[in-house]
Amino acid sequence: MKAVFNDSKPIFQQIAEMIADDIVEGILHEGDQVPSTTDISKFYQVNRATAQKGLTTLVDAGFVYKQRGVGMFVAEGARSKLLTERKNDFYTHYVKPMLVEARRIKLTTQEIIHFLEGENND
Fold first, then answer.
1. Residue 13: how many CA atoms within 13 Å on its side-chain side?
2. In DSSP terms, which residues pair with 72 in a beta bridge?
3. CA 31 to CA 61: how far, in whole Å?
4. Residue 122 — very low, low, confident or very high, per pLDDT cuts 50/70/90?
5. What are phi and psi of 33, to 5 degrees?
């Protein structure tokens, strides 16, 4: 997990995103136990309710499940589901606006591909 919060989003949301990042990056695997509310609140020095809200966000989204009396664990298929979600977000937030601008300045498909391949070869 990263250790710095910023003012762009609520802290509970950033906690949820950090844990989701760990799942996407393979730091947390399916079935692994997620840090507890107490661990998160002590480590980041945030209110337990804030840490709980971050974990609840992941539970509600189906990426993490609760096992009563034991803790919270990464759900089966969580990584695949997160990757699909993030690929769709990538298309919506980056590719689609890029294509709109490319059409506006009359870039051809080949020119766009050339730019992308050039960036890929650096």
1. 5
2. 66
3. 16
4. low
5. -80, 135
Alpha-carbon span 75 to 55, nearest angstrom: 13
Instruction: Measure the CA–CA gap between 94 and 88, rounded to whole angstroms.
Output: 10
The Cα angle at residue 74 between residues 62 and 90, in degrees rounded to 5? 65
Beta bridge partners of 4: none
Average pLDDT over residues 94-119: 94
> What is the 3-state secondary structure of the chain?
CCCCCCCCCCHHHHHHHHHHHHHHCCCCCCCCECCCHHHHHHHHCCCHHHHHHHHHHHHHHCCEEEECCCEEEECCCHHHHHHHHHHHHHHHHHHHHHHHHHHHCCCCHHHHHHHHHHHHCC
Q: CA angle 92-74-93, nearest 5°? A: 10
Q: What does the pLDDT look like over 40-70, one tens digit per residue?
A: 999 989 999 999 999 999 999 999 999 999 9
Q: Residue 53: what residue type?
A: K
